[in-house]
Design a protein that fits this description.
single chain; Protocatechuate 4,5-dioxygenase, Chain B; alpha/beta; globular; 314 residues
Length: 314
């Protein structure tokens, strides 16, 4: 029985907008180090906490959390498309354990995931079906959002259950850090069409998906040129998050972080750090942990405070 952790930012722009060559080289080295860490740990189960960007989860029924017993990726922004290799027995066991711990979650027999899940799996394992996986959706976009302390409770419930499986489990947190890309918000939806897309836009046309991708790429290019009104990246906030989560003695400080503070400091999509909080909480249930690698780079071309960390129990 053992647990290990890898948390990393994701960006749909990684293959579409080029940062400076030295920046991309540093990111690539950090990802290569994470892949080596994962390969050395050799997990036989991956539990991945990730968000969605109105591709699989919508306001017609928006849960705070959802465990996938079956799941497939849509293949947005050039990421892999197709079914994930779900460990169904583990997914059901984790769901039951989370509910027994007093944390409300839903279960999906047909989870639709986007680059938030598929990109980190592809970056770490070379595919979305390379290892048995349990996907855990954490709502990080659609307001109202659960208080942050409930994210830690979710992670701890998952962690306790995972340690009882008698397996080598890698917990992955996908998302963040500071960033504020053009993800729609219900509070800002000013037409009936925009509202409808947030409520149940599960099967957009290829043309609509391509248009959305083009808008995101254009927004990133403008942001990199300094011609955008989007919230700037916040390296100070990003490094505070890394400091707190990297120190087992401090990680419960996140209970005092408010949703408003996330957005004020680091942009509306900084809420994706919830996945990191859940992953570190899960790891903590196996005992004290130490960070084995930490990388951070503000990458304006990807609209992301980009980070990659790994950790093991001690």
């Amino acid at each position: 029985m053992s647990l290990a952790l890898c948390c990393l930012s994701h960006s749909p722009l990684m293959e579409y907008v080029r940062p400076r060559a030295d920046v991309r080289d540093r990111v690539d080295r950090a990802l290569a180090s994470a892949r080596a860490f994962v390969e050395d740990f050799d997990p036989d189960l991956v539990v991945i906490f990730a968000p969605d960007h109105y591709n699989g989860f919508f306001y017609d029924m928006m849960p705070p959390f959802c465990v996938g017993a079956r799941a497939h990726a849509i293949g947005d922004f050039g990421t892999p498309e197709g079914p994930l290799s779900i460990d169904r027995e583990a997914a059901l066991a984790l769901t039951e354990a989370v509910l027994a711990a007093g944390v409300d979650t839903t279960l999906s027999e047909d989870m639709v995931v986007d680059h938030g899940f598929s990109q980190p799996l592809d970056l770490l394992f070379g595919g979305i079906d390379a290892r048995p996986v349990v996907p855990v959706f954490v709502n990080s976009v659609a307001e109202p959002l659960a208080p942050v302390r409930r994210i830690r409770a979710l992670g701890e419930a998952i962690g306790h259950a995972a340690t009882g499986l008698g397996r080598r489990v890698l917990v992955v947190g996908s998302g963040g850090l500071s960033h504020d890309p053009p993800v729609p918000r219900m509070a800002e939806a000013d037409t009936a069409e925009k509202v409808a897309r947030l409520i149940a836009n599960r099967n957009p046309t290829d043309e609509a998906r391509a248009a959305r991708q083009a808008r995101t790429i254009a927004a990133a290019e403008a942001f990199a040129r300094g011609e955008s009104e989007m919230h700037p990246l916040n390296p100070d906030w990003d490094n505070l998050v890394l400091d707190v989560l990297g120190d087992p003695a401090r990680r419960t400080e996140t209970d005092d972080w408010t949703n408003a503070w996330f957005a004020e400091q680091a942009g509306n999509s900084a809420h994706e750090v919830r996945t990191w909080i859940a992953a570190h909480a899960a790891l903590s249930t196996a005992g004290p942990y130490r960070v084995t690698s930490r990388f951070y780079e503000p990458v304006e071309a990807w609209i992301a405070g980009f980070a990659v960390t790994t950790a093991v129990t001690v």
